[in-house]
Design brief:
The chain has 78 residues and is of the alpha/beta class. It contains 2 helices and 3 strands, in the order E-H-E-H-E.
Length: 78
């Protein structure tokens, strides 16, 4: 399973991220700081991750074989 993780991005990068998600047909997991980057009405929105995310979402990340992370340093809390 391939996934995209995104953090706070500028408007142009957000559009490119959403385009990439559609092209790759993969779920997009926004971090806590990315509240306005990808919202629940986006087709490939997979929910928030990290300490405040749901267990199923974090499990999906643990079992992915490719993680593409844009704009995040992947801290302990994400």
């Amino acid at each position: 399973m391939k996934i995209l993780i995104c953090d706070k991005l500028d408007k142009i990068t957000i559009e490119e991220l959403q385009k990439l998600g559609r092209q790759m047909d993969v779920p997009v997991f926004p971090t806590w700081n990315a509240l306005d980057t990808v919202s629940s009405d986006y087709k490939y929105y997979a929910g928030r991750i990290g300490t405040y995310g749901g267990a199923g979402r974090n499990f999906g990340i643990q079992n992915s074989n490719l993680v593409i992370c844009l704009g995040s340093r992947i801290s302990g809390r994400i």
